[in-house]
Specification:
The complex is a heterodimer of chains A (310) and B (355). With 310 residues, chain A is of the alpha/beta class. Chain A has helices at 18-31, 47-50, 74-86, 89-97, 99-107, 111-124, 144-160, 165-178, 193-209, 229-236, 244-271, 292-309, and strands at residues 6-12, 36-40, 61-64, 67-71, 136-140, 183-190, 218-222, 276-279. Chain A has one domain: P-loop containing nucleotide triphosphate hydrolases (Rossmann fold), CATH 3.40.50. In chain A, strands 3-4-2-5-1-6-7-8 form an eight-stranded mixed β-sheet, with helices on both faces. The mean pLDDT of chain A is 84. With 355 residues, chain B is an alpha/beta fold. Classes of the chains: A alpha/beta (310), B alpha/beta (355).
Chain lengths: 310, 355
């Protein structure tokens, strides 16, 4: 059976662990026989460090068998795109050297977003006679505001540009994004007020306004439950000076756990779906090997669901 | 460590990665300055709902609004990028009709809502406006979460660059481009390009774009002057940038690259405020305490102490890495609390760490 390339956009508020979740998913899928490409959109991303590597460049690199990575920077996308559209180097060089052109592309809305999506389309639908190199594209995406702008771009372009080759591409992009079997958005959150609020907002916009399939959200760094109800009562009633630091630490852990439970419940109620939970790690540096459990949970919820739809 | 900043500066700009508590820190800086006797305003960007409620900004008040706490008060307002942009256009437009023409343009509506750094631009615009009212000794500005400092600081220049570039004339009369080129090959190239661009985008986009930039005709001087004034203000001795960060390793790396960009742009950085810093005693010093407990709770407490102490050590390492990479002073390390800064009392406790 010939299956289509799947795309997963990973997004979330800054610092919540988007890269970790994206890498965990990509690694898991690669280890289960998929050909995976991880696309890093942050200029200073730390994706490669998770695999003990130097930061990735603009050329595709192999991180491990079945798993490639590449960095997609706006300026590079603009250059690549116009070089491929214009075909002749002297034309594209003239254009790219023009300050007018650069002022336009820096200020004009939607250009880098469009080009990123166009790049994904190139991988997903390589065109006649060309082989599909990947089964899964994982986009370690920009933070929520920018991610929404990215996902809205095809609609925006279609409203601005009703006809012509550009609108044809925009239409294909919209179909790709709105195809449940091919595209999903995974939002990563922390179990904190701001983060959960933003997650609920973006999930609703993605699902209800944009009609794009929403993967189960991921809640990262959930504090583990360390103390039973009886423990809590015992801890709260003890007040000796020698135990003060222990009690302070325990109360902190208890409060953090309660807070996490409350926010996870809020998220579940608001979206009608249980998030994937990943607990707080206490190791000092996260390594690729630590990604296993998270990758398994996300992979199970996302890849298998897509498999079942086919 | 922040007391001299709060006493002397006219403008403090909080910059840093998203999700580090920039808004809360900015509000707490404003409060600390108010407690030191200054007349202060804080511009907030997208505050958390409970902080918004606490500051009385629930109905998104875009005009300064007094917040009273601990016997003093400061003014707070929430940034509304769209409205600020509209106000700016209205002020700079040669006539009300010219302003209306811009408001009706589709590209303007996309742009002023969310595109091309308009929130960053408008934060800069608003701070300029408040500093120049003369109503305040100090304006504290929270900045929108940007991927990098460059985007934030370049925002006012981006629109002026577009307007000042030849793009305006070209879009209005594409063939005028040909006169800039004096050789035949160049002319042929450009004319082919223009045809390709027209075909590629469809005519409408170019028309809208021409209409958009045309609408700003006559306002260019106003915009450029404004951008220059903002730039001068950002670099003045009376201004300090304060980096706000949390202790997450990836956040610290982003903060370090923010700092590099600010220094490269020759902006005055006063130091860094670290938020949500954990501090827990080492398990080794808790032996006497542990002896007071019975198993299995003793084991749980011991494990919890070990885990939280490991997190606290990690925070300490992050802060050392930050200071050694930037050479910056740590202005304050605000301890992690389990309460969200949801009330003015919590904000006052936060502010105490900033003196």
């Amino acid at each position: 059976m010939k299956t289509a390339t799947q795309i997963v956009f990973v997004t979330g508020k800054g610092g919540v662990g988007k890269t970790t979740a994206a890498a965990a998913l990509a690694k898991h899928a690669a280890e289960h026989g998929r050909r995976v490409l991880l696309l890093e959109t942050a200029a200073d991303g730390n994706l490669a460090a998770l695999f003990g590597r130097q930061p990735c460049g603009h050329d595709i690199e192999r991180l491990q068998p079945g798993l490639d990575a590449v960095r997609v920077a706006p300026r590079q996308l603009v250059e690549d795109y116009f070089r491929s559209v214009l075909r002749f180097a002297f034309l594209s060089n003239a254009l790219l050297a023009s300050s007018t052109f650069n002022a336009l592309t820096a200020a004009a809305p939607g250009i880098s977003e469009f080009l990123l999506l166009d790049r994904l389309l190139g991988f997903a639908e390589p065109g006649l006679g060309r082989r599909r190199r990947y089964d899964l594209l994982v986009v370690d995406g920009p933070a929520t505001g920018h991610a929404l702008r990215l996902l809205r771009t095809p609609r925006y372009l279609l409203s601005m540009v009703p006809a012509g080759p550009l609108s044809g591409t925009a239409r294909r992009l919209r179909e790709l994004l709105e195809d449940d079997a091919r595209t999903a958005v995974m939002v990563v959150s922390l179990a904190e007020e701001m983060s959960v609020r933003e997650t609920i907002e973006i999930c609703r916009v993605v699902r209800d306004d944009l009609g794009i399939h929403l993967a189960r959200p991921v809640v990262n760094r959930v504090f583990p439950k360390r103390f039973s109800r009886a423990d809590v009562a015992a801890i709260e009633s003890r007040g000796s000076a020698a135990s003060a630091p222990l009690v302070a630490a325990a109360e902190f852990a208890i409060a953090r756990r309660r807070e996490a439970e409350r926010h996870v419940a809020h998220l579940r109620r608001a979206l009608g779906e249980s998030p994937v939970l990943f607990r707080q790690l206490f190791v000092s540096e996260l390594q690729a090997a630590d990604l296993g459990p998270l990758g398994r949970t996300i992979g199970r919820s996302l890849l298998d669901a897509a498999e079942a739809k086919r | 460590m922040t007391s001299h900043l709060l006493a002397e500066k006219r403008l403090i700009i909080s910059v840093g990665p998203g999700g580090v508590g920039k808004t809360t820190t900015s509000a707490a800086l404003a409060l600390a300055a108010a407690l030191a006797g200054r007349r202060v305003a804080v511009i907030t960007v997208d505050p958390a709902r409970r902080l918004k409620d606490a500051l009385g900004l629930a109905d998104l008040s875009v005009d300064p609004h007094p917040v009273r706490v601990g016997g003093v008060h400061f003014d707070a307002l929430a940034l509304d990028a769209k409205r600020t942009f509209d106000d700016l256009v209205r002020r700079l437009a040669p006539s009300p009709a010219a302003a209306e023409r811009i408001f009706a343009n589709r590209i303007y509506n996309e742009l002023s809502n969310e595109l091309a750094g308009s929130a960053e631009y408008m934060a800069m615009e608003k701070l300029h406006e408040l500093v120049h009212t003369g109503n305040y000794d100090l304006v504290v500005v929270d900045t929108p979460p940007s991927a990098n400092a460059r985007d934030l600081l370049a925002a006012p220049n981006r629109l002026t660059n577009l307007l000042a570039s030849k793009a305006v004339g070209i879009l209005q009369a594409p063939s005028s481009l040909l006169s800039f080129t004096d050789n035949a090959l160049g002319r042929a190239t450009l004319s082919a390009l223009l045809k390709a661009l027209q075909r590629w985008t469809g005519l409408q986009l170019l028309d809208d774009l021409a209409d958009f930039v045309g609408g700003f005709e006559g306002m260019l001087a106003g915009f450029s002057k404004r951008a220059e004034e903002i730039d001068a203000l950002l670099r003045s001795d009376a201004t300090s940038f304060v980096l706000v960060t949390s202790t997450e390793a990836s956040t610290v790396e982003t903060t370090i690259s923010f700092h590099r960009e600010l220094v490269a742009g020759e902006f005055p950085v006063a130091g860094v405020i670290a938020n949500r810093v954990l501090s827990f005693a080492a398990p080794s010093v808790c032996a006497a305490g542990l002896a007071e407990w019975e198993e299995p709770l003793r084991g749980k407490l011991s494990r919890n102490q070990t885990e939280l102490h490991a997190l606290a050590l990690r925070d300490g390492e992050s802060l050392e890495r930050l200071q050694s990479a930037t050479g910056l002073r740590l202005l304050a390390a605000v301890p992690q609390t389990t309460e969200a800064p949801a009330s003015l009392e919590a904000l006052a406790r936060f502010a105490r760490h900033l003196r």
